[in-house]
Amino acid sequence: MSGARARSPRAAPSPRPLPTPTVRGAQGGERAWSPPGVHVLAKPTGAICNLGCSYCFFLDKESLYEGDRFRMSDEMLETYIRSLIEAHRTPQVTVAWQGGEPTMMGLAFYRKAMALQERYRKPGMTFLNTMQTNGTLLTDEWCEFLAEHDFLVGISIDGPRELHDAFRVNKRGKGTFDDVMRGLRLLQKHGVEYNVLTTVNRVNGDHPLEVYAFLRDEARTDWMQFIPVVERVDAHGAPADLRGSYASERSVGPEQFGAFLTTVFDEWVRHDVGRLYVQTFEAAARNWAGMAQSGMCVFNETCGLGLALEHNGDLYSCDHFVDPEYLVGNIGEHSIEDLVASRQQYRFGQDKRDSLPRYCLDCDVRFACHGECPKNRFGMTPDGEPGLNYLCAGFKDFFHHVDVPMKIMVELMRRGLAASEVMGVLAREGQPLVDRWNAAAAAAGDRPLAAGDEPDLLPVGLGVPRAPVTERGRRAAGRTRRQDAGSDAG
Ligand code: SF4
Ligand code: SF4
Fold it and tell me: Is the pLDDT assigned to residue 465 strictly greater than 80?
């Protein structure tokens, strides 16, 4: 299927920066916007972690608060829960715990958090607590607590032992695979809902099928996300966070990441649709279907509703922008609602769209990519304009590659059929189907495809809607909905 030219069904005109609007807030003050909810990643231990993963960009963040104990106080915890609830006009509030390593706060801290949620809960309000952990400190007692309070746990695993241990090491440099798998098995034993987060780096990036098969068959997850490792460094290779113009040697390469995604996609689209959820593919399908939100902030047109809270109450524009320049304020002094509604935060989210280089504005897969995350935009376009995403080449390859299967899935769903039917369609029709579609797209030239341009995609027998997926798929779909409720809606 490679070489397919993707065509945006929504070739939008070039966006231009808009003036910041002003709305009146509940307390009468002026606000740049008034979102009904917000996603805050709380880091009660700041950047502190019990491991020493080589590529962890959080480790540098310790220097932001030199000499600090990196523990959220009980007073700050109460301020946080109260303010987070006040910032929501939605029936469900996601409370996201992250780090560093959030389990280092100990169970007593989270028991207090549960009690505070009850104390400040508005009538009818429910909570979804999520936790991203390396899993190494989990115990039976931890997992009983997580199950009792219906936590959704994200566990970080980079693949089978030799790939995971390449960078995920403890403070003594020893691989952590066994410790993480022990934590995962405990989650499974106690029936805790979990996802797997895999960072794709220079080493495991060359082994997409090995990683995918491991996560599916051995980690037995049905919901996975792949996050590219992009560490910015200066010309000498020293960490330079948001100001580096180069990628470190550990970072995944642009084409390497594209090949990783396309290889996993080909396996998924032939065998696992509706059974396993891969966040990047879900987001792509939503963008192909023209939905307002992809479910992943990086693939949305704008962002700004996913902020990061440090242990001392400092609220930053995003977890990827924990930097003095992007400090929005402290929740001990201002409500979360006011900080989110500030012009600074609004502009931060709109700049994701407004700062795109011309090359992206003209890109045929901008509707799916949107220039990805601004953190990774330290490349140069072919005509010398700064601000191109470092991973651009990989995204272009990937989005072009998935174009036809995505269109098939969207068409299936439009007809009330299950997207998983795509597996049968591709198995029966294969490359000739893709070729027919591409020929129609090429014949249409630059104009959008119209009815009649497109080949008959679906075999005649496919006309009866049916229950889409296995029990495993239904569970994962439910998790996607829960995760969406908690992801950056920006
Ligand atoms: S897209 Fe925006 S909200 Fe998402 S990670 Fe990047 S900067 Fe943060
Ligand atoms: S980063 Fe590359 S693939 Fe993404 S919108 Fe820009 S030009 Fe297109």
Answer: no
